[in-house]
Amino acid sequence: MQAALAMQIVTAALGAMMLAIIWSLRRCGLPGVGHWFYANLAAALALVLFALRGRLPDGLVIGLGNPLLAWAMAQMYAGVQRFCGRAPPWRALVAGVLALAAAVALWHFHFDDFNVRVAIVSVFHAALCAACGWTLLRARLPGRAGGHYVTTAVFALFFAAAHALRGALSLQAALQGPPGASPPGMHILFLLLGALAVPALTMGAVLMVHDRLVHRLELIANTDFLTGVLSRKAFEDEATRQLARAARGDSAPALLLLDIDRFKAVNDNHGHAAGDEVLRAFTAMARDAVRPGDRIGRLGGEEFAVLLPATALEDALLVAERLRARAEAGRVDGSFGSLHYTISGGVAHWLPGESLARLTGRADAALYAAKLAGRNRMLASATPAAARPATAGSAPAQPRTPQPH
């Protein structure tokens, strides 16, 4: 019993530490964290009660400690459900905890059979641990490897198996021996595993929270906050990777630079809120008009870039013209009224050995030429060998000067 008491005290201390860690994450805004905090609080209180057995009445320790530990596991499962975007089945959880409390009380005060109590508690915990593991395996964060989800799920399934084995051994002892017979010989080991379940799952939960926060920071760093397309740095990083793949033998990409015509006049005449709506309307239209593998980035102000992997110049010009036509045909409505806008663009096809800066420079020169030619048009960049024909003409690469709006 001294060993069991020592393990309960150590586990309670571990639970208290996990409680402090979860408390530090309370302001992260992620769903499920609050439930995990209450799970560790309930588990710590339950383990304190178990550690005080012999100093407190058995009825209080058993009748309150087991439901508290069950409620801790229910809160842990509810947190997993919330974290994965699901609604916890509160009625079933509350009913299960109340049924467990009644069964533990019945087999303590009336029948007084330790092994039956252990079997009941173990089955409850095994079911919830298995449910946690299954939920996590089915609902990993989209677009990421999900390693921390799998790690936490493995923790949960391991404890589910341990609880199930403990329940089976206890039920066997209850059936073979008289009521109140001694617990199985591995009781202390199983007691330790059961007490460690909530802290271990909490450690996995902290890893998942960290992964979600890192993902959020990556989105903030890589996404333009107003339009939702790639930020300039993220776009340039993606374009650099695409050019490196092309240099290794993949099909050459094309780059399209786009600029909203007379955007300054929109802000001056209708306000910056109207300008923001035009930017959002344009990017929503552009995302719908390009392929899933194409990348759109905001380079600054009203200037955007579209990277078209494995795209010939002629096909890139078709994409550019489709964007221009949709912009010309669309309107932006809001409290400022109804606005009409057009775009101009320059297209450049990557040449072997060309850097991103040189490719961008050629597309930029074509964009500037489109502005000078009257706006609302798409022009192709000239290559060092010869100018490529375009639907509305082409322009040779030239140094960029301040462009008209």
Automatic annotation (TrEMBL):
Query: InterPro entries under this entry?
Result: Diguanylate_Cyclase, GGDEF_dom, Nucleotide_cyclase, Rev_trsase/Diguanyl_cyclase
The family database entries (PROSITE patterns) matched by this protein are listed as: GGDEF
EC number(s) recorded for this UniProt protein: 2.7.7.65
Q: Does the keyword Transmembrane apply?
A: yes
* Residue span of region Disordered: 382-405
Q: Where is the composition biased (Low complexity)?
A: 382-397
Broad EC category: transferase
**SMART domains xrefs:** GGDEF
GGDEF domain location is 251-383
Q: Which domain of life is it from?
A: Bacteria
**Is the keyword Transmembrane in the record?**
yes
The UniProt entry, under Pfam families, shows: GGDEF
List UniProt keywords, sorted A-Z.
Membrane, Transmembrane, Transmembrane helix
Q: Which residues cross the membrane?
A: 6-25, 37-54, 60-80, 92-110, 116-137, 149-168, 188-209
PANTHER family assigned to the protein according to its UniProt record, in alphabetical order: DIGUANYLATE CYCLASE DGCC-RELATED, REGULATORY COMPONENTS OF SENSORY TRANSDUCTION SYSTEM
What protein does this entry describe? diguanylate cyclase
Q: What high-level taxonomic lineage is stated for the organism?
A: Bacteria, Pseudomonadati, Pseudomonadota, Betaproteobacteria, Burkholderiales
